[in-house]
């Protein structure tokens, strides 16, 4: 074991940059964050800025991920990308491993014997017999053929080593939140895709939503895939770095993330572990930043009729450095103070406050990504400026039509919700009157049984009206939820148009209640049918149509 690591620590020649080149950092670059590991090994990270200021961020922090032309699990989604650490100027950043986790790094923490015991890779069995360059190349390969549980055990052991109280120097370079150092974990899917797409430089250049972060014809220069690797893993760092300085995000091994696989990242049935990036078994034509797959943590072996921990020859991991959300009471107080302003203004426009389930809104967002692409093409191809401007004019007209469609759709939904509200209020008024009638009929039935038929009839009417009122409330809820997916300006326009019409008193009052409920839903992203029903009861108590 010591011989293996000593061999790896021998410096490589040919690059005179700082930090120096080593087997753990074969392609050093400015900005590399190098953390220690046992026996002189190293783990290299890079920081990636995220847009916006402050803990809660701003609208610039909302990104679009996925690929409409990708697989069924890559639908377009809007999400907020957040960092784990803040700089002195208020900007935020996340930290991700520069390379995939290698066999050598796993051995440094867990030991060669543990790798031999846990790995399902037949090549690992040959490590003790290898020497020289052959051994070096084998140890530089990404760790694969281990289970998700094995990766978690590695993370736990590495964190324990870093935070050994007798060795504070080990954690000295870790990024911190209010003086509290971060810790090792797997990246989230959102973090992984944000980095794979090129981060802020790609957002600013208008290339963030491109299918690949590099030209398709250059795939061989940036990634090991089926067409150039033929299912054979390669040492990390041999392909070119992407624009942020990371290697092998696409290709080589597909990389485990921290979350369970859901069909749409945010929602759907939770399954195994989400893996990203494709591998040496992915055709070059299928490589894309949005590519995601499921690794079944526990796999059913039909032949042996037993469950096994899944080990895949082309699945590995890349580390991230994370931090707890709350690290101190002082920091919590600052977050709470910032939240009031965030809740009042920004939250309802963020993905947590609205979705892209509305297909018209989705189309509008997708059209908005075209402008920077057209601008870039015009700058690169002066002879195409005129035809591209014609395309841009067509896009502008399409946006105008979508704008009108969203306004009309929001108005229609508001009108339909109001209609449900009017029906609900009428049923509640009738129920109130029937309650009085039922009380009188019951008092008469106490005097004479001949009034019992009247009691039964009134109770049946109340039952039928309660069912009808419940149906109207459900329709009202559904339309308020749909309306809550629209941008505030479309909702406001809908109410302005309807308020400008001559409405009967009952409908006018329903519009007031509806506006309150839409505002509550837009802020909280949930409805409360019991509270809303009580609101209608109170507002229409004793109401009489003129």
TrEMBL record:
Q: Does the keyword Signal apply?
A: yes
Q: Which SUPFAM superfamilies match?
A: C-type lectin-like
Q: Which GO terms describe its molecular function?
A: formylglycine-generating oxidase activity
Coiled-coil annotated residue ranges, if any: 388-415
Q: Provide the Sulfatase-modifying factor enzyme-like domain boundaries.
A: 95-293
Source organism's superkingdom? Bacteria
Signal sequence span is: 1-16
Q: Which UniProt keywords apply?
A: Coiled coil, Signal
The record, for PANTHER family, names: FORMYLGLYCINE-GENERATING ENZYME, SULFATASE MODIFYING FACTOR 1, 2
Name by which UniProt lists this protein: Sulfatase-modifying factor enzyme-like domain-containing protein
Q: Which organism is it from?
A: Ectothiorhodospira haloalkaliphila
What taxonomic classification does the UniProt entry list for its organism?
Answer: Bacteria, Pseudomonadati, Pseudomonadota, Gammaproteobacteria, Chromatiales
């Amino acid at each position: 074991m010591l011989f293996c690591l000593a061999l790896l620590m021998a410096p490589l020649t040919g690059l005179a940059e700082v930090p120096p080149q080593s087997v753990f950092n074969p392609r050093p670059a400015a900005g590399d964050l190098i953390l220690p590991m046992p026996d002189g090994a190293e783990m290299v990270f890079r920081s990636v800025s995220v847009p916006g200021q402050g803990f809660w961020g701003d609208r610039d922090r909302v990104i679009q991920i996925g690929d409409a032309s990708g697989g069924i699990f890559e639908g377009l989604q809007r999400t907020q990308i957040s960092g784990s650490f803040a700089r002195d100027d208020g900007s935020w950043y996340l930290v991700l491993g520069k390379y995939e986790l290698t066999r050598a790094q796993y051995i440094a923490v867990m030991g060669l014997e543990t790798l031999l015991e846990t790995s399902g890779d037949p090549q690992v069995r040959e490590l003790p017999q290898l020497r020289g360059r052959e051994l070096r190349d084998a140890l530089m390969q990404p760790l694969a053929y281990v289970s998700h549980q094995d990766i978690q055990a590695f993370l736990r052991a590495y964190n324990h080593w870093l935070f050994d109280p007798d060795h504070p120097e080990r954690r000295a370079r870790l990024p911190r939140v209010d003086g509290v150092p971060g810790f090792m974990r797997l990246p989230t899917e959102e973090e992984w895709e944000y980095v794979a797409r090129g981060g802020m430089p790609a957002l600013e250049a208008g290339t963030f939503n491109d299918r690949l972060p590099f030209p398709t014809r250059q795939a061989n220069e940036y990634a090991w895939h089926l067409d150039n690797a033929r299912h054979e893993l390669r040492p990390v760092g041999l392909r070119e770095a992407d624009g942020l300085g990371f290697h092998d995000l696409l290709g080589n091994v597909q990389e485990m993330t921290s979350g369970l696989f859901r069909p749409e990242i945010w929602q759907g049935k939770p399954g195994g572990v989400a893996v990203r990036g494709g591998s040496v078994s992915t055709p070059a034509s299928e490589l894309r930043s949005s590519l995601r797959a499921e690794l079944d943590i526990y796999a059913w072996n039909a032949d042996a009729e037993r469950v096994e921990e899944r080990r895949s020859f082309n699945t590995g991991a890349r580390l991230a450095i994370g931090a707890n959300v709350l690290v101190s009471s002082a920091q919590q107080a600052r977050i709470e103070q910032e939240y009031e302003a965030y809740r009042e203004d920004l939250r309802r426009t963020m993905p947590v406050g609205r979705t892209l389930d509305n297909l018209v809104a989705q189309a509008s967002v997708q059209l908005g990504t075209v402008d920077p692409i057209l601008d870039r093409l015009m700058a690169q191809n002066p002879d195409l400026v005129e035809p591209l401007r014609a395309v841009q004019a067509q896009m502008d007209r399409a946006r105008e039509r979508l704008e009108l469609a969203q306004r009309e759709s929001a108005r229609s939904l508001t009108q339909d919700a109001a209609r449900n509200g009017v029906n609900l209020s009428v049923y509640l008024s009738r129920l109130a009157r029937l309650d009085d009638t039922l009380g009188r009929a019951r008092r008469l039935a106490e005097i004479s049984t001949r009034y019992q038929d009247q009691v039964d009839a009134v109770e049946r009417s109340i039952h039928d009206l309660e069912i009808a009122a419940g149906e109207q409330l459900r329709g009202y809820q559904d339309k308020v939820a749909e309306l809550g997916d629209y941008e505030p300006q479309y909702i406001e326009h809908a109410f302005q148009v309807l308020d400008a019409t001559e409405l009967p008193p009952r409908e006018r009052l329903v519009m007031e209640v509806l506006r309150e409920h839409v505002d509550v839903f837009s802020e909280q992203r949930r409805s409360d049918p019991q509270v809303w029903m009580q609101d209608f009861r109170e507002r229409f108590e004793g109401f009489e149509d003129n």
